Structures are given as structure tokens and as C-alpha cells.
Amino acid sequence: MLLELFLICTVLLFSIGAGQNHLAPVVDLGYELYQGYYDEKYKINAYKGIRYASPPVGKLRWQVPQPPNQNRTLIIPALEYAPQCPQSLNSPGPHKPGPSGSEDCLFVNVFTPANKTNLPVMIWIHGGGYGQANGGFDPSPQIYTNDNTYIIVTIQYRLGAFGFLSSADLARSGVPNAGLHDMYFSIQWVQEHIHLFGGDPEQVTIGGESAGGGAAMLLGMAYGGADNTALFNGIIATSPFLHSQWEYDSVMPTEYYYRFAEKVGCLTDGSKTNKSIFQCLVSADTVDLQTASDYVSTTAPHGQWAFLPVTDGTFIQERPTVQLLGGGRLNGMRVLSASNLNDGPDFTPQNITTEDDFKQLLSTIYPLLSKENITNILELYNIPQNTSLTLVNSNGMHPPYSTTNSGWAYGWQQAATNLYAEATFACPSYWLSDAYARKRGGKSWHYQFSVPPGQHGLDLYPLLQPVDIPDTGMDEVFRTALQRIWGNFVMSGNPTLSDAQITTEDRGNISAAGSGVWPRWRAEPGYNWMLNVNMTGGTPTTTGFVIGGVEINVTSYLSSSDESKPPLIADFKVAEGSSWEDGRGRRCQLWADLGPWIKE
User: Fold this and answer.
1) Would you tell me how many other CB atoms lie within 10 Å of the CB of residue 38?
2) Which of 14, 297, 325, 487 is 20 to 30 A from 283, comparing alpha carbons?
3) Helix (H, G, I), strand (E, B) or coil at 275
4) Please, are residues 379 and 355 in contact by the beta-carbon 8 Å criterion?
5) Does the global pTM surpass 0.90?
6) DSSP 8-state class, residue 426
7) Per its record, what are the GO molecular function terms (predicted)?
């Protein structure tokens, strides 16, 4: 046994890379033992690739996750990220046949300040449309910016058809929303085990961006809000992704179920083997399943994924607009929600030039809309004849607004881009803020990330990278302030900056984020206060993006050594969310009213 332990430790030591100075303490989880590494730069103990559930393969496909099997014969090196879950791209692809991950992918990564106890915890849920990405990134810089006062746990969950296949046939033998069940199970894992890493299970915040933010929203709704604060207290949701949450047995998820089964070969296999479609899928080869999942996903409407969360009546009992705006119970007590300046371009076809094109897009992405519905939408998204044909970003408070112009598009193309951004990201963030503001004892804060070019996901860079990275268009003061806003929310439930956090910064204007200056969101038009997080100054630079085969040149700003140019500095302001962008509150109310037709 001593020889075995010596050999294990020797392997671990030789596995540690640069910056990983020595081994972290062994953590005994009861079912397995893990040993991570100590990161000298950030004073963090990092544990990567910790199994939190049994491999969801074979008979465990499309079932709720199960506890890991016991394996205490050796200390497992927690030095590398686990394989990612199989990936499924959004439309129009390109489709990539073959394996893109491993079904054995239910792992967490824990980043914890060394030699500390009873720390608050943030669980980070990655985005990617419920079909892409993974939990393999290091959030140590954010922890370090916040004086190493909390733990971050990043998780992985089943994606694409493996996590979000649904139909009445599947529900008879399996569970819809398997990927959401994975997330829920990982939160339960944190509750049971995080004290072993120095964490306090009574101070847990869940958070994510895009689909990760949408998932955090749905976890706030899980089981009809019956958990309240048993699993977490706070939610951070940036650009929470919500698009047509169909009933589990309705036409769209059922159609994708049969397309998937057909691609795997399970529509015809049953007649040969006496297996049901579901039994055939459970026993199918993983390469066939991964290929089919990606293929079907790329056949969804432009910019979309085929396999998304559904209303299953048990785990997710209502559509979000019903539960969030209808006074339904919610898990957790507070929320910090946000969206980006230009969340829509990556998901919008780049050929919308007329009103007819715009109406055709509406009918494609929301097939249940009636002519009356479309008329009501056009009243709020119409393009005036005198719209400026220029690429210019809105400041949210004065024209031109994002309803007609942005740094990405103008006219009907911008109307389509803004519609998608609002219906899918911005309005869900408003509804989430409304819901927790109305909850008894609940609290909501809201902000918009407005740094040009402001595309979807740009806000993650200043949140997760070191604050002193040069030439990014976001200086150290800006990055530090944004990371501290998140850190304050995780640690105290209040994201506002202290006087000390503001006065120590000698560049830019971040005082609007201060305590007593940035008010809470009130769920009442005229009092829905939000923080507009932006930069000013700098030297303009042009970057080309290719979206749907179309190249778009957009402008961003970088710091300059040329003293004739204004310095690039942080510029935070408080604004009113309902009147923002010429009445976003009215448009979000329209989308809420259209909930039965758009399934939100």
C-alpha cells in the first residue's frame, strides 16, 4: 500500500504543469479520493475532473443521473479537465459526422482558495445553446480579483439529444430534460460535498451565460419552486437564452425525436429486433447517436438548436412567462440578471431587407403566430421611412435606438436582429428580474453590458480573464469593477460596489455601481433601475465577422498611446429599464402576452 501510494504521488507530481507548483490536499468524497494542484499565482487549490454521477450510458441514457460507483482503490489525479459531452451545433452547421465528446462526461471542477473555510460558492453553468461547449475553463482570476473570498464550481451536463431529447414515447421509459436533471444533481452534489473543499453549502449562488443563464432561470423554477432556498440562494443570469419551450410531447420535440431515431436507424430496426424505438436508442452505438444528434440539430431554423428544454409537467411545470410573471413560487431569493448591447446578430439570417422578409422570419421561428399576432409585433418593430442607413450603436436613451440601428445592421435587418435579441435574451432577463423583485423577501439587480461591438458572449471575457490583459477594449478598472460586482453578489447577495472599491480606482467612472447609487429593479415601470456598463474614448478599430456566409465589419475601441486620442475608460450609468431603447418594457410585455404562441 505504501509503495502504491508513493507511485501515485510520483505520477501526480510529474503531471503538474507550469504554474501548478505543488499538490493540493487529498479530498475524500466517500466514493472516490481526489488530489488536485495548488496554483501559486492565484493561491487557489484546483480540482479538475471530479465525477459527480455515474456515466449516463447504456440503460442510464435518458434517465435521471445516478450517484457514482465507489472506487477507493487509489487517489485520482484531479489535474486535467474531463472529456466534454458530445456536441451538437446549431443551424446551419456545418454538420460534423463522428464523435465530438464522450457520453461519460458528468464531472465538476472545483477552484477553491487555499487554507480557507466556510466560503460562499458559485456554481457556473456553461452556455452553448444546450448543445455545445463544456465546463473546462479556469475562473481563478475572478476569485483572485475578489480577494479569494469564494469558491467557483464549474459543471458539465448532457447536451443535444443526449440531454434534451423529448417525446411522449421517450417519457414512457425515460425522462425529458435529462440535462437539467444533471445540473440539479450537481447542485445537490455541492450541497453534500462542498464543505470538504472549504465551502459553505448555505451560501450557494448558481450562474451562467446564454443557455447557462437560461438554465439558471429554469432551475429557479424547478419543481414549481418547492425547494425555495434549500439548494441555492442567488442566481446570476446573463443573456438568459429562452426560445420556444414546447410541451414535452408536442409536435416540435416529437418531430425532432423521430428525425433523430431515423438518423440512428431506429425507425426500421424495431421490425427486425422487436425493440421499441427507445430501446433501440438505448442500445445504439455512441458514434451513431452523436452523429445523429449533431445532424438533426443543424436542421433547426437558422441560428437554433433542435434539442432544448421542454415543459415536462414535473421538473419544469410551466412556461417561464407563466411562472415568472404569474406569481409562481421560485427557488432562491435574489437575482442579478443582464443582457448585452447586441445579443442578436449571431442568430439572425443576414438577408432581411424588406417587411416581407421580416414577416417570413417571424413565421419561421414562431410558427404558431397568427396574422393578428404579427400585426401587433409590427406595430412595435416597424421601420420608419426615414431610418438612417448607418451603422451606429445605440446609447439606449436617445435615437437612433437599437430598434432601427446598431453597429451591425440597420433597417429591417436590424429590426430582425433586435427582435431576436429581445425575445430570446433581453426580455427573459427582464422577466427574471421582475419575478424576484415581486417575490416576498426577494431582490433583483439588473445591468446591460454595452461595450461595442457588444455581441453575444463578449461579456464573458472581462468576467473570467485576468483584469490586466492589455489591448482588449476593456481596461483594468472596467474588468475589476465588473468582476467585483459579481463577487459582491456571491459573497453578500448585493452586487453594488463599496466606497472603498470605487475610490481605489483612479481612472474612469464606475461610481454609478456604488451602494446607494445603483437601485434595485422594482418590477414597476418607471422604477426598473439598471446599470449600463460601458466604456468611453479609445481608438476605433474594425473587425470582420462572418455570419451565415456574410461578412460584417464592426467597430470596437482599443486603448491608444496617442495622447491626442481620448483615453479608453470605464463609463457606468444608471438607467431606467422600461423606457430603455425607446420602450423595451412595452416590447417585453408584448412577448409575454404572446407566450402561448411563442412558447416562452
Assistant:
1) 17
2) 297
3) coil
4) no
5) yes
6) I
7) hydrolase activity
